[in-house]
Amino acid sequence: MKVAIASDHGGVNIRKEIKKLMDEMGIEYIDLGCECGTSVDYPDYAIPVAEKVARGEVDRGILICGTGIGMSIAANKVKGVRCALVHDVFSARATREHNDSNVLAMGERVIGPGLAREIAKVWLTTKYEGGRHENRLNKIKKYEEENL
Ligand code: RB5
């Protein structure tokens, strides 16, 4: 599995923690920033990660900002991306099993590095269940194909 990861200035510490986790898990990743000497704009980081996922250049994306909200809103504008904003382990598992989420967003002002690590670990290792969920995802795909 290959992952693209990025954060704005509000998510630098959790980004570091998740990179450490992926090193330990032997997961390959590319880090798309930010360098973050100063305040930056989250869409400049969310969209490149989401596009890499949508193009199939990576399998998954992980995005961190202050709340995770801006990152998730921006990432979900990219066709084919299913970005889940997650701050608990139950949802991390459920969004993989049910939604086949391909991007994970978290907020560093909401949760600490320990919980972020657990969430990322579960999200990275849980498989999509398919079955009844496939029909629901197909409805989203159909909407993306036919609208806007
Ligand atoms: C930056 O101050 C903050 O707005 C950003 O990290 C994020 O929380 C946006 O949703």
From TrEMBL:
Gene3D superfamilies the UniProt entry points to: Sugar-phosphate isomerase, RpiB/LacA/LacB
Record Pfam families: LacAB_rpiB (PF02502)
Catalytic site: 65, 98
Residues bound to D-ribulose 5-phosphate: 8-9, 66-70, 99, 109, 132, 136
A molecular function GO annotation: intramolecular oxidoreductase activity, interconverting aldoses and ketoses
Superkingdom to which the source organism belongs: Bacteria
One GO BP annotation of this record: carbohydrate metabolic process
Keywords attached to this entry: Isomerase
Family of this protein: Belongs to the LacAB/RpiB family.
Protein name as it appears in the record: Ribose 5-phosphate isomerase B
